Amino acid sequence: MKRYIKTMYLVIFAFSMFLSCSEEDVTKLPVTALSEDAFWTSEEEVSQAANALYFSLNNVGQIEWDALTEIVFSQSGPSIEISTGGINPGSSLVNSLWTGQYETIRDANWFLDNVDKAGLSESTLAKYKGQVRFFRAWAHYKLLYQFGNVPLVDRVLGVDEGQVEPSSRATVLDFVLSELDQTITELSSSGYTPEYGRITKWAAMALKSRILLYEGTLATDSSMLTESANLANQIMGGGFSLHDNYTELFRPEGEGNSEIILARVNADLPGRYHSLGQWLGPISFHASWSIFTPTRALVDRYPDINGEDISTSLIYDEDNPFDNRDPRLNQSIFDWEEDVDYEGAMFVNNGTWFNFRKWINPDETQEQQSHNDWIVFRLGEVMLNYVEAMNEVNGPSQELLDMINDLRTRGGLGAASDGSDIIVPPIALSGLTKESFREIIKRERIIELAAEGILYYDYHRWRLLETTMNQPAEAVVSLENRVFTAPRDYIWPIPDFELINNPNLTQNSGY
């Protein structure tokens, strides 16, 4: 721990990618190194320090987390190591999660311990503290979710204070929820009018709703689930609305639409591209690599057009698997049985695996030059939070089912090959029980949120990994034999180097 949360006034403020922020691009920042004495003299410097935390916000690499579930196959070494049962205290994803979150916590603590020196008004300070507190809370939550009992660090530590005792999971969770409450209060000021891409009270509420849904599921705690639903309900009344085109939602033309609560801004500027299109696209698209590809398990999750599972559907035709299906299938995954002319870009079947259409921008002209913003929170997920939480507390209702049907209907808007709407019949309430509706909700989360990098948490809290990740990943052919050891793999190992640095830590069971 000493290596990652040491005192900040002994070193240069080490944001190696520390750039400043403008109204148009919250990730564009000019400062590269700051010393303690030369800083905290103006609001501009406070803004720059707050901006630096945005580099820890989830970006396109988050998609790799879906490869730890049954829905995505990965050709990336770090996720292959875990999906095939090789997780260990030296695993790359284990180390990067631990170090990355404590680096974020360190930087947030440095900010919060020093920002009062700038002499700004309380209302001005609040909008910056709220943004930074959000990052500190989320970093702690990511740690407790994967590692269990972890050191809670809420201040800058002295050089000899690095060997921190771990706090219980419950203690860290209480801290996270309290921090988010304060964040919501600080960012609720009428004078705070953030530009697109900034943390808002709505983003903090979305994060808290997500966390309470996860924790309420794990603990079977109806009070947490009720609070998750209450927060989701407030967001749904906050002026957001479903975007009217599911395909467009994940392409550059959908940026800034009314469904997005928070996005990681990836500016369309020279040298500021990412490679998501090349990671996901077929090899015919700019010699793409197909690093992350959908599996047969995901394809089979999409129901028929009526919402019936394909295993019991009377209209599903396995020889024509895209016919009479939920239209989000065709908007998320390319038809592997034919070469596709996708708005002028040719996608050629490779005969081995499937490829995502979701996130692919056919207007890209060069390799490794995608610039989609990455959606962190959106209304579609918040609606599903509400529906799942309320079903667990009270069972199915027409209100809840209407929200599922709203998502299904939106999936059909503009979804036909000629750009017209596909009519998606609603699912009926009659005969639904809490248990049967729960399965519809799970399916809806999987297909609506596929390739957005958050479903690992769902499979984890539903305790489905021990079943789904002990089956081969398949597409056109079998791709990978997978191994998940329960209950061990639900809690990750603490990195070896951290056990050496901090003797107060003990390794999690089974590693």
TrEMBL record:
<dbReference type="Pfam" id="PF07980">
    <property type="entry name" value="SusD_RagB"/>
</dbReference>
<feature type="domain" description="SusD-like N-terminal">
    <location>
        <begin position="92"/>
        <end position="213"/>
    </location>
</feature>
<dbReference type="InterPro" id="IPR012944">
    <property type="entry name" value="SusD_RagB_dom"/>
</dbReference>
<feature type="signal peptide">
    <location>
        <begin position="1"/>
        <end position="22"/>
    </location>
</feature>
<keyword id="KW-0732">Signal</keyword>
<feature type="domain" description="RagB/SusD">
    <location>
        <begin position="286"/>
        <end position="511"/>
    </location>
</feature>
<keyword id="KW-0998">Cell outer membrane</keyword>
<dbReference type="InterPro" id="IPR033985">
    <property type="entry name" value="SusD-like_N"/>
</dbReference>
<keyword id="KW-0472">Membrane</keyword>
<protein>
    <submittedName>
        <fullName>RagB/SusD family nutrient uptake outer membrane protein</fullName>
    </submittedName>
</protein>
<comment type="similarity">
    <text>Belongs to the SusD family.</text>
</comment>
<dbReference type="Pfam" id="PF14322">
    <property type="entry name" value="SusD-like_3"/>
</dbReference>
<dbReference type="InterPro" id="IPR011990">
    <property type="entry name" value="TPR-like_helical_dom_sf"/>
</dbReference>
